[in-house]
Amino acid sequence: MKKNLVLIGMMGSGKSTIGRILSKKIKLNFFDIDKLIEQKTDLSISEIFKRKGEDFFREIEEKTTVKYLKSSNNIIALGGGAFLNNNIRAALKTNSISIWLNWSSKFLIPRISKNKTRPKASELSKNELVELINERSKIYSMADYEINCDKLNKNEIVKKILKIYED
Ligand code: S3P
User: Fold this and answer.
1) What are the residues facing 101 on neighbouring strands?
2) d(Cα 66, Cα 72) in Å, to the nearest integer?
3) 123-140 pLDDT, tens per residue?
4) HSE on the CB side for 40, CA within 13 Å?
């Protein structure tokens, strides 16, 4: 039985893309928590925020994430805000290795702005986004491992993760 490999970090940090590549390489199941929530509610993340509010989203996010963290042999991409939740961080301690895909704001902001479907980011100015990144980074730094992605391409990021996970 293998521990879950859990990718954390800001929106736009590549958690889903990297998770999918990893799952092909090491033949573990890949779960993208945002996608699971969309399937479960039959609504897009933006619609959930708009119609039901962020608190409702955070509740389902906690339930879904904790449920998947209790199993094993999975690669899991968390939503960008999930690691801020104490219960999720506690659940990560038992059977998972968490890896923070860390990018500096300079790289992250254009990646976030390109995608208009992110309710948490769409209402923020550039400065507010920088603030959010700085605030969250303090918490993301509690992950088991951190990868500084600024100078790396996808393959290099994947290699680093595999080295951490398979060692
Ligand atoms: C959020 C990030 C999103 C999604 C929701 C809230 C956040 O996930 O969970 O829009 O608070 O950072 P991604 O990081 O997969 O974009």
Assistant:
1) 147
2) 12
3) 888 999 999 999 999 999
4) 14
Ligand 1 pocket test: which of 118, 135, 137, 140 has the largest number of ligand atoms within 8 Å of its C-beta? Answer: 118
Ligand 1 pocket test target in 32, 36, 41, 45 with most atoms within 8 Å of CB: 45
Pick from 5, 166, 144, 161: nearest CA to 72: 5
Measured CA to CA, the distance from residue 50 to residue 87 in angstroms comes to 25
pLDDT reported for residue 79: 97
Query: Which residues are bridge partners to 148 per DSSP?
Result: 102
24 three-state secondary structure: helix
- Which residues on neighbouring strands pair with residue 77, listed in sequence order? 7, 32
Summarised one tens digit per residue, pLDDT across range 63-107 is 999 999 999 999 999 999 999 999 999 999 999 999 999 999 999
Nearest atom, ligand 1, residue 11 CA? 14
Atom 1 (ligand 1) nearest CA: 80
